[in-house]
Amino acid sequence: TAKSNTVAQAAGKKYFGSATDNPEFTDAAYLAILSDNTYFGQITPGNSMKWDATEPEQGTFTFSGGDAVVSLAQGNSQLVRGHNCVWYNQLPSWVSSGSWTNATLTAAVQNHCSTLVSHYKGDIWDIINEPFNDDGTWRSDVFYNTMGTSFVDVALIAARAADPNAKLYINDYNIEGTGAKATAMMSLVSDLKSRGIPIDGVGLQGHFIVGEVPTTMQTVMEQFVALGVEVAITELDIRMTLPETDALLEQQKTDYQNVISACNAVTGCVGVTIWDYTDKYSWVPSTFSGQGAACPWDANLVKKPAYDGIIAGF
Ligand code: XIL
Q1: Which residues contact 224 (CB under 8 A, 6 or more apart)?
Q2: Which of 4, 53, 185, 208 is the most exposed place for a label (fewest CB within 10 A)?
Q3: Above 0.95 for ipTM, yes or no?
């Protein structure tokens, strides 16, 4: 049968990838599939490069979890997507509950991004994650509340200086179809471009629900690309209300195919990453009560109809 990364590259994409997480590396059967670069040409650490994992105390950096992901990827000739530098979630309390001024938080963001991106030099980085609310307003978090929108500039400039070769992204969800949040992201990209702030790409996370994939994905991706950035689908999964049925699995196959086809139709859409490849390790059941079965491989590491949808989409 056709292999997802091989097929993606034959279609002109840079990669088809998967998220993973360090505890999963002790599962030999899981690791064997993850390490097959005909399936996955890229991996994203699901947790081990986040702020709480990498700078648990101010100025003390712990790279071991992320290093394990990088060394796995290097051994398999896979690209790494660094994830992430600045996000409101999974912050150590010294960041989320610190008493900050604009100047002190600017220095902390600068140091965090610079240290992270220079340690994990290479491929692709989600520098900013989830900056907007669903209505397109800025998320009220410690960064925005202390620094205004300048946290975006500060992080991107520090990242570019730390590794001029890395592709720097802003990543968010509910920007995959037209609407206020996608429009807000486009305004941000235009503004950054007009002021010469480094920005290379926009990540569309793609956490979808079976039967509810936006029909305007290709349009939105073309609009981003027209602003002079690349795009990628960075965290694709398509969940359903359990229990799974044959009908839901067939709809899920169609949904995966439609997402891949939309990326495939846009030259500037460089790749697709699924948010882990198997239902065994999906974040969905523990996050969305009663939902699951969101990945293309089932909990026994057997391919589902969704996998064939991915192949058909490229
Ligand atoms: C998720 C991880 O997969 C979980 O293991 C963790 O408990 C919470 O975060 N959007 C993102 C990712 O950008 O970092 C999130 O990852 C899923 C939603």
Answers
A1: 185, 186, 189, 202, 231, 268
A2: 53
A3: yes
